[in-house]
Amino acid sequence: MLEVENLDVTYGRTRAVKSVSLTVGEGEIVTVLGANGAGKTSLLRALQGAVRPSGGRIRFNGRDLTAQSPAARVRDGMVLVPEGRQIFVSMTVEENLLMGAYLRKDASVDRDIASIYERFPNLAERRYASASSLSGGEQQMLAIGRALVSRPRLIMLDEPSLGLSPLFVERLFTLLGDLNKDGIGILLVEQNTTMALDIAARGYVLELGTNVLEDTAEALASNTALTEAYLGGHGETATEEPARLA
Ligand SMILES: Nc1ncnc2c1ncn2[C@@H]1O[C@H](COP(=O)(O)OP(=O)(O)O)[C@@H](O)[C@H]1O
Ligand SMILES: [Mg+2]
User: Which of 7, 13, 14 to mutate to test the pocket of ligand 1 (most atoms within 8 A of CB)?
Assistant: First the structure.
């Protein structure tokens, strides 16, 4: 479904992603692991279309999307739940969900929003409340709900468990499993290595922008020496993001 070939992302002199290739099959869960600064967010932003890659190719369902706008990618069925959620805190829960539908012209948006409220009863109860009043875990659910309104075939998530309580981390991974059962492919960037490898079929490990390991999730999970070396031994704990340039 998703085929990424030799992707490069460069900011000035920083080569954040160096010739990374990866695939996500139809309905597959794939994880990308790596320590802070490994290039995970840059990779996802290039896949989303927010950052123009300096090299390489992105194909989705056989179509070359490398030069396509973020909106075109969403229309084609690829959506990103960004790092730090990025919900609109000055809007209500429902307005946030409607933002996920802005590219759609069909009349079934109301039905899809209703189905999101069924999936997330917490959000249904708070539909007219300001998104800023939600807990971190609820905000993450809202960010995922907003992505689901675009009816994705592939959902990409950038460290969705970061900063969540153990209860919400548990709920989040259950949700990802449910979405996958509904046929949605998942590209999951995580620092919670254990849970990511538990849910994924395959994984890639990035170090300083380079793909240094690629294997089945099972093989990566048993490869503790290597994963600890590349993940800086932070595999189990969600660490804060470093300060970054705007
Ligand atoms: N907008 C930016 N401008 C310049 N450098 C950036 C920018 N975003 C990220 N970087 C640099 O690119 C590298 C990879 O960062 P990032 O993709 O955020 O990694 P990760 O998500 O794995 O922590 C880091 O060295 C980071 O400082
Ligand atoms: Mg990141």
Answer: 14
